[in-house]
Amino acid sequence: MTPLDIALGLATSGVPALPLRAGKVPFGNCRRCADSACGGRPNMKNSGACACPGPCHAWAAATTDPAVLRSREWAGAWRDAAAVAYHPGGADLTIVDLDDADAVAWARDTLPPTRTVTTTRGEHWVYRGAMRSVNAVRPGVDIKSSMAYARWLGPGNGTMTTLPDIVRALTVKEPSAVRPAAIAVPVLAGGGECRHRTPAYLERGISMAEQRITEARTAVHATVYRTFLAVLSTHGGCGCLTETHTARLFTAAQAKGESPRHCTDAWTNARTRLGL
User: Fold this and answer.
1) What is the pTM of this model?
2) Of 26, 30, 170, 271, whose Cβ has the fewest other Cβ atoms within 10 Å?
3) Can you tell me the distance from the alpha carbon of 100 to that of 122, in angstroms, rounded to the nearest whole number?
4) CA 176 to chain centre
């Protein structure tokens, strides 16, 4: 099978694919991105989607659209492709990338069994569920999911299981929960109780906001911003939001691959738009 045939097969299964040149480096097919002059960065202003006509910017260029994969703009990349990659987070997957025998041994002793794929140096352990990507979470172990790409090396062996908390915990450097930067929220005189709704309404709103972020499959940046905007438009002016509420929203966003800085920027921009 050609690299394009493999990519089309992945796309049919809902796995966003892209071509890689030698050295596992993504292509840049427009003047702005030729030879990776752009640094291979996705266009964050376009909700993380590559705005260029060719397969640039690694994970952000991965697609399940067969028309794009077969397009004239991609033809040269597929002709010269040395391998096929995919965006695990875009397929709601997480890869625990084990780079050596010691890392593989650690995984077998520590992590719940799941589908495994043999690599040139170790193994990929594939779990169902997306999270943020972090390199070097421990010696020889990287996490590849949202905003990352992995080389396609075949479907692997074994039954894929749900992403366990022990894998999510690998990206948390401190034992405490992820906390957002300090944010000044207007306080309602009288104890910060919601002046127009009950506390149950606030709790339901925060839970729905967490769910909206968690279920986002595309345009994560835009979804996070719109969700923050909706929460602040309802509760930002009455002082009922606490640090616990904002921490829950930031944690949900970071689990989808957003950095703390992106969360803070989205929250600040939403407050500015609402004049808070």
Assistant:
1) 0.60
2) 30
3) 5
4) 22
